[in-house]
Amino acid sequence: MIGGVGAMPGQPGALPDEALDALVAVLDEIRLGRPSSRAELVAQTGLSRSVVAQRVSELIDRGLVVEGDPRPSTGGRPPRQLSFQSHAGHLLVADLGATSIDVAATTLDGRIVGHLDEPADIAAGPDAVLERVDKLFERLQAGTRGIGGRAWAIGIGVPGPVEFSTGRPISPPIMPGWDGYPIRERFVARYGAPTWVDNDVNLLALGEWHSGIATGHDNVVVVKVGTGIGAGIISDGRLHRGAQGAAGDVGHIQVAGARSVVCRCGNVGCLEALAGGAALARDGEEAARSGRSARLAAVLDRGRAVTAEDVAIAASFGDPVALELLQDAGRRVGTMLAGIVNFFNPSLIVIGGGVAQSGDALLASIRETVYRRSLPLATRDLLIQRSSLGALAGVMGAAAMVADELFGRDGLARWVAAGVPAADMPGT
Ligand SMILES: [Zn+2]
Fold it and tell me: What is the pLDDT of residue 4?
């Protein structure tokens, strides 16, 4: 064992609870905040001077923290800045969409140092899609300047429900062949690195919360309006996944009094089947065929199907039918969110996803409905804003997820004594 903190009998290198708590508190300050001196860490953590000194030397011995040059001082011994050793290894992350793969290599604090993307069809199945992820990871590892050490951990985002404890997709509607597929085991076996898997919306929420518009908010709902509709929930400063990982699946809440459209989940009248991107495309196409929208009919004339993005563009040019479709979708999403606001009292709602990014009409309609339908106390300081991270949100969120798991209390407890993360650490 490196460092001098007392090992538990029979568990060489394992830290007693109290020491582990202090280690996590000190590492979090250094890792997530700005570089700090020991005195600043004492003030920020509330730990005693001697405990901070012990944990810092422990982290330095383990190669997770480095000590910089002394800062100029007004008197006494000049303080030294401590910073996170973010290049000791790297993280590999992939964000699998319905029609694309985004991969990134990041530093251990989740900063992207290499990024690649390519079109892909998730319906091609796990073997074909994950083989391409391997190829892209190989290219990143071989071709990224400044990539440090070996891959310490891997994060994968998929466009469907995931049982977080096992890293397996469960009955994902748009991912044929992926139901129950052991994504985690596959990457652990191949890379010898711990792997975590989550759905794309939770990763969007983590990305916005760590590095985007939700930074500094402890209670946030991030809604993704893409082909489908889903939400990621930050509750009391943590991602809330629920008992199995299904929390936030708001797209399948039934809309009261709606026409009976069958959803891809098999139920009737789901929000997603009425207001998601696929629904907008369907209704836009119908408006084009019936001659109600000349601008959307022009899309058909060019020989292709109408997409949700076409509807958003037509609305931004003032097409009344497209505008009505988006306003209607916004009202339905807003009504769902008003219920969430009354139940959960977030300080921020972030609207992301392809449909939300492509125009103002949807966002305006969501805002108007939420403020009208929620209770005054819940909306007094409520902000509703557009997602800020764009195309990199998924990989940034995946990196944030992996860093949280790796350097969180449970994660550190499993590997810090050994010096490097163990491949089999999640769920063990
Ligand atoms: Zn549904």
Answer: 35
